[in-house]
Structures are given as structure tokens and as C-alpha cells.
Amino acid sequence: MITELGHFALILAFLIAIAQTVIPLIGAHKRWPGWMSVAEPAAQAQFFFVAFSFGALMWAFITSDFSLRLVTLNSHSAKPMLYKIAGTWGNHEGSMLLWVLIVALFGATAAVFGGGLPPTLKARVLSVQAAIGVAFYSFILFTSNPFLRLAVPPMDGQDLNPLLQDPGLAFHPPFLYLGYVGLSMAFSFAVGALIEGRVDAAWGRWVRPWTLAAWVFLTIGIALGSWWAYYELGWGGFWFWDPVENASFMPWLLSAALLHSAIVVEKREALKSWTILLAILAFGFSLIGTFIVRSGLLTSVHAFANDPERGVFILIIIALFTGGALTLFATRAQAMEAKGVFGLVSRETGLVVNNILLAVSCFVVFFGTLWPVVAEMAFDRKLSVGPPFFNMAFTPFMVGLGIAMPIGAMLPWKRGKLRRACWQLRYVFALAVAMMVLAFTLQTGRSALGPVGLFLGTWMVFGAFADLWMRSGKSSVTDRLKRILRLPRADWGKAVAHSGLGVTIFAIAGLTAWEAEDIRVAQIDEPFEVGAYTMVLRDVGRERGPNYFATRATIDVTRDGKPVTTLYPEKRDYPVARMPTTEAAIDYKFLRDLYVVIGDPQNNGGWTVRTYIKPLANWIWGGCLLMAFGGFLSLSDRRFRVAAGARKSNVQGVPAE
Amino acid sequence: MKTLFSALCLSLIIALSPFATAPAWAVEPDEILDDPALEARARDLSKGLRCLVCRNESIDESNADLARDLRILLRERLTAGDTDDEAMDFIVNRFGEFVLLRPTTGGANWLLWAAGPAMLLIGLIVGGGFVRGRARATTKSEDALSTEEQARLKAILEE
């Protein structure tokens, strides 16, 4: 019964979204306040119904209602509760419902908090947002309905892919979707502004929080996915340049570019048409990401719905929205003339460089991801584009970005002096060089990657804080420290996020350069050395989990005779899903992870044991967290809150119509 | 995350084969060559070779049997005295350029390799042109208020 109500609510939400697309758009065009004001309650009602629908599907998963086709295919009664809930979005249909739920959520949020927007712009933005919703509602209802029943319900389900039964992956998709779909808000604002024919500083200020929020969620989502790959896949890789990873990485790069260029629009009223274009492209790449995952165009592990019909449907959605928005852009963009004037050396120029590097690096990822398809269709060559290509073609852009970032961030608006900014960073530069030399001397005969990464990381982290320090003016150290603490949160957010990127770059370089690996057959109670550690395999036993069987090893780790830890790596077998997984045992420490995997028993006794010492592994995700935290700090800045307060008083001041 | 796919391949293989026992995991101790220099070369090369049944994973990372065969084949070639290039050529001749994770620069592939630098160049030229334009633009509108803004300012001041 609840299932049918959920299905019905979804159809209702679809109909409301159609009304929300059409009526406010006409209203804004004709300046009819009554028609425009339909958008706000419609957005809220739409969210209410789609949330109810999502809740109904979740309820079916929680209660293991196997009369639902989707639940049978993706759940099992013995599965832990967390994964029953996460199973709601661990499949194609459910994840699309989550997607559209977030579209509606952002629409409703914009309706509630958008009181200060000009009424026509608000109506148009909500209308475009609803149009995106309409496309995806019809996609769900006509090609991938989650609420289909089975005529004969089975006794039990077929279980969720065991690799997905993991806390990291349970929350990876929701964050990623919050990010993808958050960009739909920037898209709606861009298209709304194009229809309106007006982009000004205020527009930049409205668009920025949405982009920032989307970027923060994308950062967390990507980091969760990569962390999951690190501990779950059994050898500690964290990034594979898989098409699906690239699909989430491209919107991340573009949204990073967008949130920087929106600053220029907000502060200096320049880069307007570029910012609009970026907003369209960023969401376009989110859609392309969805397409790549679900069309089967590129073979990937994530492709849980390789269905040409669905692929074509999403392709039509992409063509409609991206194509339509770009056409609109082509006809309207010239109207947006830049106002701000700035010198060759200025913060504005720095941000232009940032945008060039981010956009071109995104282009490289895009080109590399699609090249196998192009090469096969146009040149009849079956080839692969893998990590070695991306590492070579993409890394230089990040290095360039890393070198330029502290300098660009230090430059003043309008007009600056390059020499002055560099001079202010002289101590940071000296420190970074010192670190690099130190790393060179300490390591012998290894690649230059580690020292160079250390240089970049130090340069970026300390450069970010040198920027804060320079802002504190000239006086005693305590006064300056006090003043730094009182700096706006946006400044702090910038410094924290920038240093986060530095930490991540440093950690990736360090991990790649200084990782140690040991693969061997270990005999019970026979110690072996890995780096500075002595390991002993004590025991291998069988365990039973809720829906799996495990082979569990006990390994004692000592260093210089002192016990460090005892690790319990596992191999699991999920009988229902018929799939083995490895559960690496990881000893997390500040400076390094000790990563142990148990393999197979050998014919002549003993077990395969893989041990990795992964220096700085935690720092990769620590850096991502810093980036996300910086984004949050910036979001909580007084500027946005003051604007929100102003909106409220505005609403009170408007007479009832 | 492509390992997921190989795990899927694997589970399929296990499900289909009645003789299959526990799966083999990436580089096994018995494959490792005694000569550490040779082994290091083999590891380096196998990171650039794609596992054919898992699609998105190098043979160095893959658990699939085919990847294991390819690892052993590569090590045999290296032990037989092949240079890195010879060993790679041998494998590419047998399995096609699809196995190369790093595409060659030959033929139309120059497009792939040139795309990034070319786009950067275009970006720098366009961006440079824009910045120069902004630097040269007359400062007429910089501090002046538009008529609309002046009207608003007047209204605020009169309040």
C-alpha cells in the first residue's frame, strides 16, 4: 500500500513539476505576479511528494518487501540495517529517485531562501530547476520505475553487491549527488539570467553559495569514494582514472573554476559570460557523468544499468538542456559586457589563470576519457587510455596551479605588483626549497616526485597562511594574531581550502614516491621484516558474519622489539551474491598507514601476505576534508548571512498582493 | 574502483567453473623473479599493461587468471633477455594496442596527446587577450554610477 502511495506521489510530483516549469515562466515573461508566485509553493509541494515517494521506497527496503522487483534484485533479509537503507540508492532506479529528490530539495531551498531575488529571476530560476526535474521524473517513470511489483514474490532477495556493503560507500552516492545536482542550481541561475538578460554583481553573489555548496559536497563525495577504494579493494589504490571517477572529477574541476570566476563577477563585474558558460558546462558535465555511468558507452565497474534505451533517454536530456542553454548563451552572451577594469597583474588575472588551468585540465580528462570511443568510431582502432596517460597529461596542470596559487591569492584586486607578491612569499619559498632539499638528502636513489611534491605542498600550505598573515597589517605579533582571528570567515575559508589542496597534492606525491611493498608466503609464527617493522602471522581462522563467511588472519606487528599493533586482515565470501572480497587490516597512524592483506593458503603451507607501508595516506583525505571545511567556512561567512537577513526584512516589507 | 569489475568477472568465472577454487590475487609470491632488478622492471611494465578481461585495470593490480598469465609471460620474456621495448612489442603484437594503458603517439593518437597543450595555448591566448583588453579599457564606468544606481542612492540618502 505504501509502495503504491509512493508511486502515486512520484507521479504527482512529476505533474507539479510540469506546472512549475510552465506557469512561472509565462508569468515572468508577461509580468503577472500571480503566475510567478506559483513557483514557490509548487517547489515546496514537489519536494514534499518526491520525498514521500523516496521514503516509501526506503520503507520497502527496510521491511524487505520482496514483492518489489527492485528490492528482490538488490536486497536480502540478512543484510545489516544500514545497508538495507543504503540499498535504496545502491541501484540504478533508486539512485535516480535520489537524484530527482535532490533536484527538488535544491529547488525548494531556493524557493524558501530566495526571498531577496528579483521576482522575475526567481520565477525563472525555479522554472528551469523544475524543467530539469520534469526530464528526470519522466526518465524514472518511463524507463526505470522503482515501484514495479513482481507477480510472484520470492522468499528472499539476491543481495546487494558486497563491495557496496560498506559505510564509506553507503554515503558516497548521496554526497556525490548533492554535488552534481547542486550544480543544477548554478545552471538554473545561469539560464534564468540569460532569459532575463541581466548578470550583475548581485547575480554573482546569489550563484556563489550554491556553487560552493555543490563543490563542497562533490569534494566529500569523491573523497569518500576514493577512501573506500583505498581500504576495500585490497591493495590501497585510491584513484584509478576510471571513466566513472573522471565523470565525477570533471564537474569538480569545473565547479572549482566556477566558484572562482563567480567571485570576479561578484566583486568586479567582469568574466560574466564566461561564468555563465562555466555554469552551463559544469552541470552539462554532471549530466554527461550520469550518461557515462548508465549508458554502457564506456565499460566501467559502476555501470549498473547498461541499457541502450536509458542511455538514449539521458542523451536526449543532455542534448536538450546543454544544447538549449548553449544556444541561449550564443544569442544572449554579447549583451553581457564586462564593467570592471583591471591591470595585467591583479587578482582578476590570477583568477583568469586559475580558470584556464582548471578548465583545460578538465578538457584533458574529458578528451582522454572519450578518446577510446572516438578512436574506435573514427579511426577503427581499439585502444585504451589509462592512468599512465592521465598522470602524464593532467599532472602538469596541477603543478602549474600549485605554483601559481599562493601568488595569485596574494595579489590585490585591480592592480598589483608581481614582484611585491613574490617578495612577500620569500620565506615560504625558502622553507619549501629547504623541505625539498631535505627530502632529497634523506631519500637515496628514488624518484624526484616526493621532494617536488613536498616543495609544492609546503609552498601552497604556508603560502595560504602567509596570505592571512599579510592581511593583518603592520604592528606587534600579538596584535596581528588577534586581527587574523577576526578576519572574515571567507578569508579563512580560502586559506583553509587552499592549504587543503596543498596537503592533498603533497600526500599523493609522497605516497606514490615512498610507498613500500612486500609480497610473500608467510609461515605461521615465522617473523618477517617489512621496512622497520617485524611481522608475525600468528593464526588463520574461519569466522562467520551476518551474511558472509570470513577467513581471518592474526598478525602481530612489532618495531624494535616493542609491540605496535595486532592486525586482523580478512577475506570474505558472500554466498548469496557469490562474490569474494578482501578486507585489508590497516593500522592508521599520523605519518603512515600499515596496510596488510591476507591472500591464499599455499600448497606447501603458509599464506600469501601482502604488506604495504603507505606514508601520508591519511593526508590525502585529510586534505580533502580541509578543502571541504574551507568551503563550509566560506559558506558561513557573514556576507551571505547578512544577505539572508536582508532578504527576510525585504519579505516583510512587501505588501500582500 | 575498476577492481570491482574484475571482481565481478571473477565471481562470474567462479560461478561458471565447477573446478574453480579460491581466486588468485594480484602478483603472487611464486611469480616474483629472483633478480630484484628484473622484477622491478617487470612490475613497472605490467603497470602499463591492461588486463583484458577486467577492462580498466592493469595486470599488476588484477586478480584475474588472464592477468596472471600475462604477468608470467612478461617475466618470461624479460628473463629470456628482452629489453623493455622488445617485451612490450611482443605483447602488443599478440594482443593488440588495446593492452597499452598509455596509448602510443602514432597515427591519430597525436590528437590525444596534443589536445591538452593545444587547448592550454588557446586558453592562454584568449585569456591574455581578454586581460589585455580589460587593462586597456577606459576607466569611464569604473567609479561612475549608472543612472539607476544614482536614483537609488538619492532615495537612500533622502530617507
Model description:
The complex is a heterodimer of chains A (657) and B (159). Chain A is built from 21 helices and 10 strands. Chain A has helices at residues 2-30, 33-36, 39-62, 69-74, 81-86, 92-113, 119-143, 167-196, 201-232, 243-268, 272-295, 308-332, 347-379, 387-410, 418-424, 426-442, 449-471, 477-485, 489-514, 617-635, 638-653; strands spanning 516-522, 528-530, 533-544, 549-559, 562-567, 570-574, 579-583, 585-588, 592-601, 607-615. In chain A, the strands form 2 sheets. In chain A, strands 2, 3, 4, 5, 6 and 7 form a 6-stranded antiparallel sheet that branches. Chain A has a 4-stranded antiparallel sheet with strand order 1-10-9-8. In chain A, helix 1 (2-30) packs antiparallel against helix 3 (39-62), helix 10 packs antiparallel against helix 11 (272-295) and helix 16 packs antiparallel against helix 17 (449-471). The longest helix of chain A is centred in the middle third of the chain and has 33 residues, at 347-379. Chain B is an all-alpha fold. Chain B has 2 domains: 3-99, Helicase, Ruva Protein, domain 3; 109-158. In chain B, helix 2 crosses helix 3 and helix 3 packs across helix 4. The longest helix of chain B has 28 residues, at 109-136. Chain B starts with a helix and ends with a helix. Chains A and B meet through helix 10, helix 13, helix 14, strand 1 and strand 7 of A and helix 1 and helix 5 of B.
